[in-house]
Amino acid sequence: MKRTMRLIRRFLMLALGIGPILLILNLALFIAFTWREKSGGGGWDAAKEVGEELALKEDGSWSLSDVGEQILTEYRAWGILVENGTGDVIWHSGDLPEEIPLHYSLSEISWYTRGYIADYPTTVGARGDDLVILGHPKDAYWKLLWNSFDYDIIAGMPRMILSFLGMNAVLIFVIYMILATRILRSVKPVVQGMEALPEREVYVGEEGFLAEVAAAVNRVNEKLRAQERNLRKKENARAGWISGISHDIRTPLTMVMGYAAEIEEDASLPVDTRRKAEVIRRQSLKMKELVGNLNLASKLEYQMQPVKTETVNLAAVLRQAVADFVNLDLDGKYPVDFDCDEKTDKYILQGDKELLQRAVCNVLTNSQLHNPEGCHIGVNLHREAGAAHIVLEDDGTGVTDEQLAALQSTPHYMMDSGNGSQLRHGLGLVIVRQIAAAHGGWVRLDHGENGGFLVEIVLKCL
Fold this sequence. Notes:
- By secondary structure, the chain is of the alpha+beta class.
- The protein has helices at residues 2-34, 41-53, 66-75, 106-112, 151-155, 157-196, 211-265, 271-301, 314-328, 353-369, 401-409, 427-438; strands at 54-56, 62-64, 78-82, 89-92, 116-117, 120-127, 130-135, 310-313, 336-340, 348-351, 377-384, 387-394, 415-416, 423-424, 442-447, 453-460.
């Protein structure tokens, strides 16, 4: 809506800016079109020039030169010369209309020189003491006969012009605001509907001059909602399938692990058989962990895993996760160095204790899975700019630059190693990202200082 009001203001400023420009342009055009006529000055000059071109011959008659005849032809005019004193016409052009008088009284001269003779507009000039009158075509000029103005009107002309311009400006503004209001009334629901399209279902009334646009918005809304429903169905089906598969696998897997443990602990069996049972149990445990991670990732992705918010001491959560990992490392192939200052009250936040512990365990397990020969793992917890930074780094095989770039940019459960035969770092780290995001944090992946793999989890503390 703010953008719409900004657009209306721009149109208003544009209209206010164009108004004076149009006024100046119209004045310039008016002056350009009327300058040639000079309020009839051309006809008056022609009468004066005709008077100069009249010559008195020896026999007492008057004649007009070729230049004078050309002037009459150019103006399509006829001419007469009225003698001073008598009022008689002592010369006239050859095309004088029949209705034109050949004698004039003083009162007639005063009238005709100001206005018309037999509806022919007239202009006058002088030839000595005599009067030259030119009669022009009836459609040539329109004459204002009483062209006198009160002096107060002339003196107040600037004020009148400013008042006229002010009233016009107010009228233009009122008309513009009425039109803008009507336009805004039609545009507003369309704009609001378009802004709300990505978030919720909308319907815009299909009326006004934007009825076609409103109809298009409604069609887009129907398509978006249909796509959302289809996507939701697919997501629910996918999540349900993963949950069902996880549940179906967990029961037989538990039985396999139980029988493998019994065989492993049976002293009457050969050592080689017991060692194979141990391998079966360990691999089954990995499969169980993988299935659990897959189910958890699905729930977190579709926001079905509730975050049980409580006050959590992140230092205690981290110690517990490290202790659980070390207790499961019976061979001691993955020693862990834990580094955290004594002021553990600096690491208090609101979150889900189990999910946070799961995130740390996933990173530790990730180092174990990808370094079967063993590695050294460093765990550091420190606070910086109001956030807790959990840095877990190993000195194992690490990842290549290409694998790291793929891990940072591939929003999928797993990342193929390239030949399709092995899936490397992926699902566990996806869960770590999702858990961090659920707590308003983020995760950074990088190369470790000792050539291994580094994961940094950043969470905002209280």
